[in-house]
Specification:
With 273 residues, this protein is of the alpha+beta class. It is 39% helix and 19% strand. Helix 3 crosses helix 4.
Length: 273
């Protein structure tokens, strides 16, 4: 060993801040060469500690253990290494966008929990929505045809949302109940997340024009929510304010009572003109 000092695993753990179990895990992943004395005891060197520090920096950058080990063994002053860093920055930026979107969703959910006087009708401008059908009303056979696209949208949950569409024609009819279509949707501005996803057929992704919308909150049981008269307050507000329903209504769940006994808390967006 040319006089290079050796450190037992306990000493090396103190040097690097890693637990012995973590050191053994990283050793198996290829971070350290497996060195043992004849008596079976592992030993490490100061060079291993420097390697561990460089490895931890790459973990801070968000690389996986496998990626970080591979990058340590590659030439770092190279275009390929810089490209890896730039690609990682792009990935982190996308993750940050998703986290910001999730924070907005949590804030919206907290708002739904706050007591309000009535549904809180409000006219808002909303960007158009892209969606994939999981059903046509209560017929879910379309999900077999749209399986790849539904899976892709579910991979993006946080950016995407499970929702229901209430057809305008049903709401304007005299039918006592409506049959919601179940969809997975996202704001159109988030469509770049689909770029590069394999096997996504854009022809199966539909666009719901939004623009000027009536936004309101509703608390209703599952059986109440499909009754046509559950929308009487919405139509009364539209009539009183000189608006009419322009397109299908998008219903976004805030909280679902899966036992069916309580009330779901929902946000509805009704395109108006």
């Amino acid at each position: 060993m040319c006089g290079e000092r050796e450190y037992r695993i306990g000493e090396f753990a103190a040097m690097t801040g890693m637990s012995p179990s973590k050191i053994r895990f990283y050793e198996k992943a290829g971070l350290f060469p497996e060195r043992r004395h004849a008596n079976g005891y592992r030993y490490f060197t100061a060079g291993d500690a420097f390697r561990a520090n460089a490895f931890m920096v790459l973990l801070v950058y968000g690389f996986s253990v496998e990626e970080a080990v591979g990058m340590l063994d590659a030439r770092q002053a190279s275009p390929a290494f810089e490209r890896s860093l730039r690609d990682q920055r792009d990935r982190l930026a996308r993750q940050a966008d998703r986290l910001r979107y999730r924070l907005r969703r949590v804030d919206e959910a907290l708002d739904l929990l706050n007591p309000q006087a009535g549904p809180g009708f409000r006219v808002v401008d909303k960007e158009d929505v892209l969606y994939v059908r999981a059903s046509d009303g209560d017929d879910f056979s379309v999900s077999q045809r749209n399986g790849r696209e539904i899976a892709a949208f579910y991979e993006l949950l946080g950016v995407t949302s499970c929702a229901r569409l209430i057809a305008r024609d049903q709401l304007l009819s005299d039918a006592p109940v409506v049959s919601p279509t179940y969809v997975i949707c996202m704001p159109e501005s988030e469509a770049f997340h689909l770029d590069g996803l394999p096997d996504v057929d854009r022809a199966r992704i539909h666009r719901l024009p939004m623009g000027k919308c009536l936004r309101f909150r509703r608390q209703a049981t599952r059986s109440q929510s499909v009754r046509r008269d559950a929308y009487d307050d919405m139509f009364a507000w539209l009539t009183d304010h000189g608006y009419h329903l322009r397109a299908d209504v998008l219903l976004l769940p805030g909280f679902l009572n899966l036992d069916g006994q309580g009330s779901d808390v929902e946000t509805l967006l009704a395109p108006i003109a």
